[in-house]
Design brief:
By secondary structure, this protein is of the alpha/beta class. It is 44% helix and 13% strand. It has 3 domains: 183 residues, no CATH class; 321 residues, Alkaline Phosphatase, subunit A; 64 residues, Arylsulfatase, C-terminal domain (2-Layer Sandwich), CATH 3.30.1120.10.
């Protein structure tokens, strides 16, 4: 009866996950199967050795670990829409234990939860102690030593085989959302395998095999891609903001060396899909760890690729597998010896390890900055629009005090700080001769809500969420025919076009060196509930249609006049609404 009760409670939790987070019901059966195999193995083996106290202890530990597992999965699903993995726990464990970023739990909170949970589970097991003792005694009397031992070993072996099946079968409907096996998967990808992603990866394998490998580009210039996390275009001086938040970038634009895209938009409002869409030139539904991306093209044509990344990219959603960086060319916040992982000064630390530029070895840099993210470290000297004593550690419950961490004055400080880091990067790259003949792109992975409708990012697709800067540092003589509009997916094609390299046929972006034309771009949220948007641009207009299917909500805005997106035109423009509604449906149905 105790085992039956344990299975019922486990099934109830799995059912709650399926109901709350939109999972299918089949993984519930898989979860109950795993728990049942474990329970029956314990019962049989402890019956053999008549280890009643050991059995009680092991059951208390089992229930405690389950409670921890369910809590981790709940937090992960609430914030990221997916199950937690042991890989992420190991990677972020030290910082969580320290009480710093990204969650302010700390050693005391973790220890108290562990002790209280274990004490509670122990009390429950002790309360049912007599029933457990009777079950063990019955099992031994009924089946005796040999048969009970054989049954226990067989059940233990079956448990091992089943959990291995679940770990390796991540695309099987029975296992893709099961709560135990998913935790032990070695790679925590945010892009779960789908037939659509498999099809893209298979096509890309052919495209890569037939791409002109090792043929030298027509222009072997260095390429630097700088992505500033959570950077909004409308809070930048270079985009007309009233405060002097980007003096360095503004100076470059005024000099003619840097060109500005007037209205640029990210594919989504979260880092993972923003980064991968930029490098893969694809909407998020078409990205996997096996797509043919910008860094792959450049490597195949003789480029050295280097990653200098603020933040912990080595542990997040399988990004190292997506980057496919070699040893010695990847430096992120997990490797810094001087700073915390969200301190942008660490990219300069990593750049110190990069050798001076070589004439016969072009290099591609991807630099990621965290200054404008609410977890990004603010330097003491960067308080310009806030008081120097107006400092709040990101470790103080960041998801509960976002209005303090990311209030507009503080955000403006950090935009100015990012501009200063970019200036230092330019100086350091120039000292190593990487700017002698280079193309530099400064952009963002997504925007950031500052209280207009919400705080932070990830859940919406308004301008504050996805309108980003896109700045191109290039020779003044290079002509870009139309920089009025661009999407994140256009960056990679523009780089290859500038280098004289063919653009892979599977890429969805357009080179900004080509004449502009009417187009539709697709955008979505990574977090739940999924929202989808289509931007429609022609020579005269720019419209955004946002659909939230889960809530049955639709919005249509004319971005040429309604920058704040306050006037919903769905009822006023039914024909355009129907056109864009069908575009969203087609985009989703392709999955």
């Amino acid at each position: 009866m105790f085992v039956v009760l344990h299975l019922l409670l486990s099934a109830a939790v799995a059912t709650a996950f399926a109901s709350q987070f939109g999972y299918t019901m089949r993984p519930i059966a898989a979860h109950v199967l795993l728990v049942a195999e474990w329970d029956l193995a314990l019962v049989a083996l402890m019956s053999v050795f008549r280890a009643r106290r050991t059995y009680r202890f092991l059951m208390a530990v089992t229930c405690t670990l389950q409670a921890y597992l369910y809590l981790l999965h709940a937090v992960s699903n609430i914030f990221w829409g997916r199950n937690m993995t042991g890989h992420l726990v190991l990677a972020f464990g030290p910082t969580v234990w320290s009480g710093r970023e990204p969650f302010p739990v700390g050693a005391i909170g973790i220890s108290v939860f562990a002790l209280v949970t274990f004490a509670l589970m122990t009390a429950i097991v002790v309360f049912g102690g007599r029933a457990l003792d009777n079950s063990l005694s019955y099992g031994f009397r009924r089946f005796h030593y040999t048969r009970t031992l054989a049954a226990g070993l067989a059940m233990a072996a079956l448990f091992g085989a089943t959990i291995r099946w679940g770990i390796e079968s991540r695309n099987a409907p029975l296992w893709n959302q099961e709560l135990i096996a998913s935790f032990f998967r070695p790679d925590g990808f945010a892009f779960e395998p789908t037939p659509r992603r498999y099809a893209v990866a298979e096509r890309d394998a052919v495209l890569r095999a037939t791409y002109p490998h090792r043929s030298p580009p027509a222009s072997r210039k260095h390429v630097v891609l700088i992505i500033v996390d959570s950077l909004r275009a409308d809070r930048m001086q270079v985009y007309g903001y009233s405060r002097p938040t980007t003096p360095f970038l503004s100076q470059l634009v005024q000099s003619g060396r840097m060109k500005k895209v007037g209205a640029a938009f990210s594919t989504c409002s979260e880092s993972f899909c923003g980064i991968t869409s930029t490098l893969a030139s694809r909407e998020f539904l078409d990205i996997s760890a096996h797509t043919f991306d910008l860094q792959d093209v450049l490597r195949d044509t003789g480029y050295q690729t280097r990653f200098l990344l603020s933040g912990n990219h080595s542990a997040w959603n399988g990004l190292p597998q997506f980057y496919r960086a070699s040893a010695g060319t990847f430096f992120d916040g997990s490797q810094t010896r001087r700073y915390t992982m969200d301190d942008d000064r660490l990219v300069l630390e990593g750049l110190e390890r990069v050798p001076t530029a070589s004439e016969d070895q072009p290099t591609f840099f991807y630099v990621h900055l965290m200054s404008t993210h609410y977890l990004g470290v603010q330097f003491p000297e960067s308080h310009v629009f806030t008081r120097p004593d107006d400092s709040i550690s990101p470790g103080l419950e960041p998801y509960k005090i976002l209005e303090k961490l990311n209030k507009p004055d503080r955000y403006d400080d950090k935009v100015l700080q990012a501009d200063g880091i970019i200036q230092q990067l330019f100086a350091a790259l120039a000292a190593k001769h990487y700017l002698d003949d280079a193309m530099v792109i400064v952009t963002a992975d997504h925007g950031e809500g500052l209280g207009e409708r919400h705080w932070a990012h990830g859940w919406d697709l308004y301008n504050e969420d996805i309108r980003i800067p896109m700045l191109l540092y290039d020779m003044p003589k290079v002509e870009y025919p139309d920089l009025a509009f661009a999407a994140q997916v256009d960056i990679a094609p523009t780089i290859l076009d500038r280098l004289g390299l063919p653009i892979p046929a599977s890429w969805q972006g357009q080179s900004l060196l080509a004449p502009a034309r009417k187009r539709f771009t697709y955008h979505q949220t990574y977090f739940l509930p999924n929202r989808f948007a289509v931007l429609y641009r022609d020579e005269r207009a720019l419209f955004k249609f946002i659909a939230t299917p889960q809530y049955g909500k639709e919005e249509l805005y004319d971005l040429t006049v309604d920058h704040g997106e306050v006037h919903n035109l769905v009822t006023e423009q039914p024909a355009l609404t129907e056109l864009l509604r069908n575009k969203v449906r087609a985009y989703r149905l392709e999955e």
